[in-house]
Amino acid sequence: MAWIVDAVYAHDYVVAVRDNGGHHALVDLADCLTGPLHACKDTSLFRLVRAATGTLVWPGGYDIDPDRVLERAIPDSDLAARVTLESADRSKILTSCEDSMPIISVFYGLIIRMYHDENRHHTAHLHASYAESEAVFDIATGEIITGQLPTSQRRLVQAWIELHSDELQANWQLLRAGEQPVRIRGLQ
What we know:
Blueprint: E1 4-11, E2 14-19, E3 24-28, H1 43-46, E4 50-52, E5 55-58, E6 62-64, H2 66-70, H3 78-87, E7 103-107, E8 110-113, E9 125-130, E10 133-138, E11 144-148, H4 151-163, H5 165-176
Antiparallel strand pairs: 1-2, 2-3, 4-5, 5-6, 7-8, 8-9, 9-10, 10-11
């Protein structure tokens, strides 16, 4: 599975991207801005696109499957994408907190993060945020340890934990060993 590791707005509904294999492309997302992504048709929002969690994200919790993005690559756009990425003014792009708390998944506006601090964290858990709400979930039980999320988002996270419990436990072990966790596919 390819991950998008860098992205900037190019023009119209086109984004310059670079994937984890070092490939560059311009991608035209005009036909993707339906359903949950309809709000991104507003060009003032669309221009705020950035790469995070291996895909494209926008403020407000909007994201898109990286495979869907890469399917829309404009043929022979490698050089144009490289130039766009290299010359982009990134001073106005929001940055994520992936370095301090890595993001492992993004789906339906939810951002899932994990990190481990040997002095503070003894229970395997993850942090889920949605808009202004955040909750910490026990990986083994799926129950909220602290915080809160709206009911429907809480249920989505709990279903996701149940589906990916083995991968989440493996990520927890990676974090305990001082390694970075791996990305886990969100709910579809």
